[in-house]
Each structure stands twice: as structure tokens, then as C-alpha cells.
Amino acid sequence: MGTTTFARAYRAGQRSLPTPSHVFVCVTDHFEPERGRAALELQRQRVDRWLNDYPRTVDGCCDSRGRPPQHSFFYPIECYLPEHLEKLATLTRSGYGDVEVHLHHDNDNAASLRELLLRSTETLHTRHGLLHRDASGQIRYGFIHGNWALDNSHPDGCHCGVNDELTVLRETGCYADFTMPAAPHAAQTRTINSIYYAIDDPQRPKSHDTGIPATVGAARPRDGLLMIQGPLVVTHRRPWQKPRIENGNVAGSQPLSENRIDDWLKARVIVSGHPQWQFVKLHTHGALEANTEVWLSSRATEFHARLRETADRYGFKYYYVTAREMAALVAQAEQGLAEPIFDAVKLF
After folding, report:
1. DSSP bridge partners of 188
2. Using CA atoms, how far apart are residues 220 and 229, in angstroms rounded to an integer?
3. How far is residue 129's CA from residue 225's CA, in Å, rounded to a whole number?
4. How far apart are alpha carbons 38 and 45 in whole angstroms?
5. How many other C-beta atoms can be found within 10 angstroms of the C-beta atom of residue 103?
6. How far is residue 233's CA from residue 196's CA, in Å, rounded to a whole number?
7. For residue 164, with 0-12 CB atoms within 10 Å meaning exposed, 13-18 middle and 19 or more buried, which class applies?
8. What is the band of 10 on the pLDDT scale with cuts at 50, 70, 90?
């Protein structure tokens, strides 16, 4: 993360708490059962733990409209195993979340990327009943890039290779990208704490470094890809302590805690002109055992209780939403709606 970006994140961490009326919380999981070259049996154990324990962990927890916590599993399509997707589909059909697209690749090109995305999204939809078709019949998907290297943005030029990746994503049905923030990784964009549209320059990498803010009443750029970022602030509560980067990551080393909620709100991720709605996009690598323990234990149940107390104390309503629902709510905010309409989330 560059010095200027760090300074902006530091200033965000020092400002006062906002006063939103509605807060939307989305957990995006870089869900990688194969991580660490895990044997198939270990992969199965990792997925089964979520299938069996997630409902037990969140049942009894609910948001302001009585809905349980939602989990958006971004599954790595380069590691496709039907049995894993079937188990995740069981969770989604039971009302606990959704499945979207994650991808790690290297030294790739636009043609092979396009073919992989189209083939994989068709498989997820037709074989497993995942993803969704829009009014035109196109399969739509949310996306997270592996190794943070969206649009060939890794400073070493690795883990991608496709300078026009944003165009490929948009043309193959991607409704929004959820990769950022990457800090403290060097692939972090200059744009932070934002919802915006990235315009692809097919000749250059990292076209999402800047973009056009999503704004109430403004037309969406036809060639723009929606970018929904998570919080990025630098906290420095006591002079004798080192500043700490709050990047919305939930892990064994960054567990859920009540004081993090204030930092997420200070990021003020909003649609420009609509500060009453605030979007909190968190991320995790939930298949890893240390991180699984954060989400599938009493600590998560306690956190959901603290979130409710925080909402009551600050006077806002909060909603657990999937990635697709969050993108649809962005569209509602752009229309200037005062109250969210949840039966309209089929937009994507």
C-alpha cells in the first residue's frame, strides 16, 4: 500500500462515526478447500464442517428483518469438484447464502479466460442450480480475483496476465467485482472505501485503480464494471501503539470483535449522495481451519449479538445480505430509494 493511500486510510480511521439509517453486511468468502494442496479427504472435511455447523452456529441470530447471517462462497473455478459445489448448493437452498466465482490464474490470455468463465458459470448454473440469469437470459456472477491480482495488477506481473480482464468479466456476465481491499498487499488500488465503475484500458493493467463513483441519479457507464470495496482504515487508538490496518478480513489472526464494527462504519462505503445507506463488505478464507473456528464457534454467535446491540445503540437497521443482493441494493441506492426493497434483489 502506497504512502498516499495509507494516509487516506489513516484519516478515515480518525474521523467520527457516521449516522446511517440502514447498514448492509456482506461476507465474501475466498472459499478454497484445496488450499495448501490439501488431500481430497481434508477438502471434504473442510466443506463438511461448513455444511454441518454453519446452520447450527447462526440459527437464532437474525438481522433487523429476522433473517439469519448470510455467507457468499466465492468458489475457485480452476479447482472445480462437483461434490464440493453440491454441498455448498445445499447451504444456499437452505437459505444461508450464495455461491459466486473465484479464480486463480497466471500467464493467461483473454480468449482462454473468457472460455473458462463461460464454461464454468454454465456448469455452476445448469448442474448445481447456482448463479442466476438476468432478464435477457445471461448468467450473472460476482467475482473475486485470486492473489488480489485483478486486471493484471500484481506488481510483479504474475497471477493474471490479462490486461483487458475487466472487459472479459463484464462481457461474460460479471455484475460486480468484490476483490478489494488488498492492503497491505501492493495490488491495493488508490481508490479506497468506494463503490464505483472501473473503465477498462485493454492495453494497460490495473484499470480499476480509479473509476467513476456510483452516484444517486447518475447513469451507469455502459462500459464500466461495478466495483464494491470493503472497508480500509488505519486505526491508531493509543499514541504508544502502532497503527493497525483494518481491511475487513476475518481470520484467526483478525477475529470478529465489537470494536471492529466502528472501524467498518468509519470507512463510509456508500453510493455517493446517499449516506443513509452504508455497505460493509467483509472477506475471509473460510475453508482454512483457523478461520473456520472464527465463523463456526460461539465467538461468531457472540459477535452477531454485539452487532445487534451496536445497531440498537446507534439507531440503525442492519441486514445480512449476499453479494448479489448487495449489488442490487447499490442499484436501489443509485435510484435514491429511502427504504430498501428486498423483493427487488432479482435484478442480477
Report:
1. none
2. 17
3. 25
4. 10
5. 24
6. 18
7. buried
8. confident
